[in-house]
Amino acid sequence: MTTANQAAIERYRNNFLKEVEANVEEGHMVKMCMQCGVCAGSCPLGPHWTHSPQKIFMMIRAGKRDEVLGSDSMFMCTSCYNCMVRCPRQLPITHIMHGLANYAHRLGLAPKGQPTRDFATLFWNNLSKKGRVNELMLTLQHYFRNGLVAGIKEAMAMQGIGLGMFKAKRINPMEIFGGHGVKDLKGFHAIIAKAKEIEDRKKGFTA
Amino acid sequence: MNAPATPKYAAYICSGCGIGDAMKVGQLENIAKREGKMTVVKSHPFLCNAEGVQLIKDDIANEQVTHVCIAACSRRAKTEAFQFDGVAMSRANLREGVLWVVAQGKEHDEVRQEMAADYVRMGCAEVKKMKQPAGNVKEASSKAILVVGGGMSGMTAALEIAETGYEVVLVEKSGALGGMAGNLWKRQPFKAPYAEAQDTGVADMAARVSSHAQIKVHLNSTLAETSGAPGRFTVKIAQESGAVTDVTVGAIVQATGFTPYDMAKLPDLGGGQANVVDQVGLEALAKAAKGGEIKRADGKPVKSVVFVQCAGQRDPSGQHLSYCSGHCCGTSVKQAMYFKDQNPDIDTVVMYQDLRLPGMGEDFYRSAQQKGVIFTKGKASKVSGGDSCNVTFKDLILDEENTIPADLVVLATGQVPNAGVDLEKWNPVVTAAEGGDEAAKAQRDEMRATQSVLKLTYRQGPDMPQFKHGFADSHFICFPYETRRTGIYAAGPVRRPMDMLQAIDDATGAALKAIQAVENASVGRAAHPRSGDLSFPTARLEGCTQCKRCTVECPFGAIDEDEKRFPKFNEERCRRCGTCMGACPVRVISFENYSVDTVGSQVKAVEIPEEDEEKPRILVLACENDAYPALDMAGLARMNYSAWVRVIPVRCLGSVNTIWITDALNSGYDGVMMMGCKKGDEYQCHFVKGSELAHYRMSKIGDTLKQMGLEPERVVTQEVAITDNARVVKLINDYVAELDKLGPSPMKGFG
Amino acid sequence: MAKKEYAFYPGCSSQLKASASNYLVSTNSMCNKLDIKLTEIPDWNCCGASIGYCEGGELPRIAINARNFAQAETHLPGQDIVATCAACWLSARESKERLDASAQLMKETNEALAAAGLNYKGTAEVRHMVEVLIEDFGYEGLKAPMKKSLEGLKIAGYVGCQTNRPFGIAGESFENPMYLDKMVETLGGEALTKYEQKVTCCGGALAFSEPEKSQKQIRDIVESAYDHGAEMIVTPCPLCQANVEVYQSEINKKQGTKFNMPVVYYSQLMTVAYGGSAKDAALDGQLIRAEKLEKIAGK
Predict the structure, then answer these.
(1) Are residues A158 and A141 in the same domain?
(2) Å from A37 to nearest chain B CA?
(3) Overall fold of domain B145-257+453-522
(4) I need a labelling partner for B97 at 20 to 30 A (CA). Which of A53, B241, B611, C225 fits?
(5) Contact flag B397-A55 (C-beta cutoff 8 Å)
């Protein structure tokens, strides 16, 4: 991982904007930001970000690679798309945030222990395992992310909800033994593996 | 039509639109006859229809009527129906001024009738003092137009005028046409998709100007003297060599452009250092590169460049330009493209506080972003020089101090208008010179020789008055291109900061104005805003005390002094506002159809009730441009105002002579209210200075009131806009209530 | 009217005994009444959802969506793909638009699909169930099967994010979409059109990872519904439904509120209005019982 990061630093020198344009989903649109700040004012998690999208874009142009890729801000995205539909310059802000988060995560520069980073990783691993999300496992794995004791605490706190969901037939305890999945699991995994291989090659995650 | 020798007066009272239902028209007829002394008095149920109009026309033709008072609607209504050649005409406003504003109902019948009766009296009194203006056709009027300046504005104006069929004389100071535009490598795009810088088109335009049969170009030339007036300007064109050519023109377009703000005044931003240039300097480097690698003065190719916007502009400290020059953001966007188009790897940063890209500039901005120009919202505080400059700035988004290196720094300095001598500075020098101060005389001559553009021989100075920041005074919204020198029009950045496309529009507008001016001058007609007016001021010089107030106060510099130091009216320069008439302490200035008497006799015609009747009378002098329409509009909206007021429209508050006010108060009016346009920096006065002068004069009226034993509150001056219909009603009603508290005027019964 | 047929993409949450099973049940009931035939895309897989970005990246997410398209094209040719889940619709439609716009991406995606012997031609259309209802039936058409009016029910239409942005329903605004209100009115209910939280984000997947921050959002959404006198909230999105319904008890516990606002799907309202039973409408699937709706269903 560090090699991918070092390679990127080496390759783009101090032109972080170029690096973003090449390696980040929709990164080529970062330069079109006109710094109006509508995104910052439209984000439901606005009060919790260290850097608004507006600032992130400014920082990219100012070459602040470490600060951007180490920021927790992209992980605050709820994917509500409010910034994106309001952007007067039609920047796909949501996608750029996702792309930056992915890039930072893959380079190993994203903040460690960031809860959404961890949950999102868990989610992808969960769905890619069987081709469909195992909601029970996802929930349990999430609760137990910080170890057994913390997990039991959290699960106990939420047990009322779990019971309600069970009564309403909206959760299946049997999922712990497998649950829903695609039949052609082999093919599904092959598709993901191939796609990942192509993407990693393009974005410099593999040498 | 030959004017009959003896005047014959006629009044026509319309009973239509409900006037006849709410008022006793028969009584009004009697008043017109007995008190108004009208020979012919008729009423008609629909005076503005064909039959009613014919009735008046027949009387003019068959009964030799010479003066017509129409008591019907506002003078602003039915102007086409009530237009009779060869007769003087007054209008008594019974509809908008009485019927629609006095409260309805029987209990108001009496005051309504009194108000109507007074307006009939006033209309009759006014028309008897009026003369039909004869006009003053100029036989040898020139229709050629002088264009001063051969840049984009000047060349555009010259071509527009010439293509319309008028002769143009174009004077250009330098040895070639093109002006500032000629210094550019490329210009901003004028057409969709607004994405790429374009050829300036200057060479082609200069060729068209030079070869045009209707345009005579004088290069290396300046104006040595400009005298005369619209239709008869005499201009001495001096060549660098010293040769002088005399030309006669009818109007002038001043398109003298701008000078970039001197970056030597910006040492903190690197002004004066080798690798720091202004935008004009960058154009020179780009021109030298001819589309290739742009190199610095020392020959080193530029690999990184920072554009510092608002350099010495929008400066709140007062040290530099306080305003935005409008074009510089677009210019820097264009110049940044010079680099990116040649080599996308050149680091190109535009450092701005607020990007301002008028017109379709946003598209151009987007295009630059596509090309990879980096836009940084920041304020530069320091540019250190050397082989690699360092730009220190405050990042306004990230809120931190930062520094970026650059091979070249471009300062976007602003536009300083080439408007000539600042008359505010000129006037005290001239006063001192006239007092015999030798140093002042030398300074005056120096200013005239080196700073003046037009070198006018006008009493009020050699150039146009300036407004804010040294730009030629022209109302940028209501009447662009118009200046305070009739027949002389400003176009381009000398008028306000602007880019090339705006300057082209501007020059086209000014060209049309100049054409109007020569046509008006040739038939003795007024220009804007009293377009078509044939009256002009005359003075009974035998009564003149040579106080010079008229020559000083005329907003348009229309009045010079003759050899005997009497005022010399240049009627072609006159806008017919009457400011001179308002200024004259001995009341010797008048127009044929507008004079101290036409208004004064109306003031006196109003019947002032005795004190015990408890019917106050308040005179409202309302500017015809905005205040009177606002009052009409209030009527149209059926808003009620007090029936105690009597409104007289005036051409401009500047024309209000204080005698009207003292006469009114002497004859027992309880108060006088003046309504004029907004004055000051945001002025809306159609004659620029009239409203301001009126306010000034009224501020001095206190002593007179004191001598009369009257409270100063009895005279008020208000600024109103044409949209203020609800407000004028409130102003009147509040004022009536205030006067009610003061009680009746002690002058009642002495009049 | 001829039966309308669609390739159905229920998504992970709309499976039996999954978190939006009530959406699935009521959708099936609603479609029966409207004479819609839904055929599940054979062996469909997860869309990746928005939250998949972090680990999934760009191409893998697009590729798994393309796998569903390829299945639909092969097995249900000519049928539009219809999703009920907002996230499924969004991911699928986003993938489709990207693929339509870029030949390079199409090539890479098919390279990945080839690993499972699949190929995507780019013919399948991706739509949301709400689009089907509004565009293929119209509000008037939706009235046809009505047996009961929802008269007297005050309903806040909570549109949320992903059926609204970035694509939305044609003709609607992002800031104030009206289609849920119009649906409620079509069914005879009282739409609280001034409900100002209708497009507020519920926190989405961050309900798990950032519960405090999400619950603040949810509180606003529920509180405003109460302020407007709502008796229930209706939504087109399973994550909205789950978050806004499920966390009310948590918020009550932590903040001392007394929230008890039912949150139902439009498909449940329609099933009831079309004469379906509470069971047909899966009203037994609510954590907070929609008693007033159950009452109408029981009439």
Answers:
(1) yes
(2) 9
(3) FAD/NAD(P)-binding domain (3.50.50)
(4) B611
(5) yes
Inter-chain touch B395–A35, beta carbons under 8 Å: no
DSSP C59-123: HHHHHHHHHHHHHHHHHSTTPPEEE-SHHHHHHHHHHHHHHHH-HHHHHHHHHHHHTTT----S-
CATH superfamily of B262-414: FAD/NAD(P)-binding domain (3.50.50.60)
Q: Out of A59, A85, A112, pick the residue that ends a domain.
A: A112
Domain identity same for A143 and A187: yes
Interface check for B402 against chain A (CB to CB < 8 A): the answer is yes
Q: What's the CATH architecture for C4-128?
A: Up-down Bundle (1.20)
Among A1, A20, A133, the residue to mutate for chain C (most C Cβ within 10 A): A133
Question: Are B231 and B522 contacting, i.e. CB atoms less than 8 angstroms apart?
Answer: yes
pLDDT of res. B307: 98
Cβ within 8 Å, pair C246-A161 = yes
ipTM over 0.85: yes
Are residues A193 and A139 part of one domain?
yes
The answer to whether B365 contacts A34, with C-beta atoms less than 8 Å apart, is yes
Q: What is the DSSP string of chain A?
A: -HHHHHHHHHHHTT-HHHHHHHHSTTGGGGGG-----HHHHH-TTGGG-SS-HHHHHHHHHTT-HHHHHT-SGGGG-----HHHHH-TT---HHHHHHHHHHHHHHHT-SPTT-HHHHHHHHHHHHHHHHSS--HHHHHHHHHGGG-HHHHHHHHHHTHHHHHHHHHTT---GGGGG-----S-HHHHHHHHHHHHHHHHHHHTS--
Listed by number, the residues of chain A in 165-204 with a beta carbon closer than 8 Å to a beta carbon of chain C are 165, 168-172, 175, 180, 182-184, 186-188, 190-196, 198-199, 203
- How far apart CA B336 and CA B368 sit, in angstroms, is 8
Is residue B496 within 8 Å of residue B537, measured between CB atoms?
no
Q: Which residues of B touch A35 (CB under 8 A)?
A: 375, 377, 397
Q: Is B356 on the interface with A (CB under 8 A)?
A: no
Structure tokens at B658: 């204080």
Is C205 at the interface with chain A, CB within 8 A? yes
Closest partner CB to A117 (pick from C50, C54, C247): C54
B and A touch with 3+ CB pairs <8 Å, answer yes
Q: For residue A138, what are the domain limits?
A: 115-197
Of A32, A58, A89, the CB nearest to B397: A58
Going from the first residue of chain B to its last (751 residues), give the mean pLDDT of each consecutive group of 10, the final group possibly shorter: 73 97 97 97 97 97 96 97 94 98 95 98 97 81 97 98 98 97 97 97 98 98 97 97 96 98 97 96 97 96 97 96 96 98 96 94 97 96 91 95 96 97 96 95 96 96 94 82 94 95 96 96 90 91 95 95 94 95 96 96 96 93 97 97 98 96 95 95 92 93 88 94 96 96 85 53
> Using one digit for the tens of pLDDT, what is the confidence trace for C68-125?
999 999 999 999 999 999 999 999 999 999 999 999 999 999 999 999 999 999 998 9
CATH topology match: B145-257+453-522 vs B262-414:
yes
- Residue A12 sits in the same domain as residue A37: yes
Do residue A32 and residue B374 have CB atoms under 8 angstroms apart? no
**What is the CATH number assigned to the segment(s) C147-298?**
3.40.50.11810
Specify the domain boundaries for CATH 1.20.1050.140 within chain C: 4-128
Distance CA B15, CA C178 (A): 57
Mean pLDDT across C21-40: 97
The verdict on C13 touching A (C-beta cutoff 8 Å) is: yes
pLDDT of residue B476: 72
- Which of the four pLDDT bands, split at 50, 70 and 90, describes residue A150? confident
Domain B608-751 has CATH 3.40.50: yes
Q: Kindly list the partner chains of chain A, i.e. chains with 3 or more CB atom pairs below 8 Å.
A: B, C
Count contacts between A and B (CB, < 8 Å).
32
Residue A203 covered by a domain: no
**A touches C, CB cut-off 8 Å, minimum 3 pairs:** yes
Last residue of a domain, one of A55, A84, A112: A112
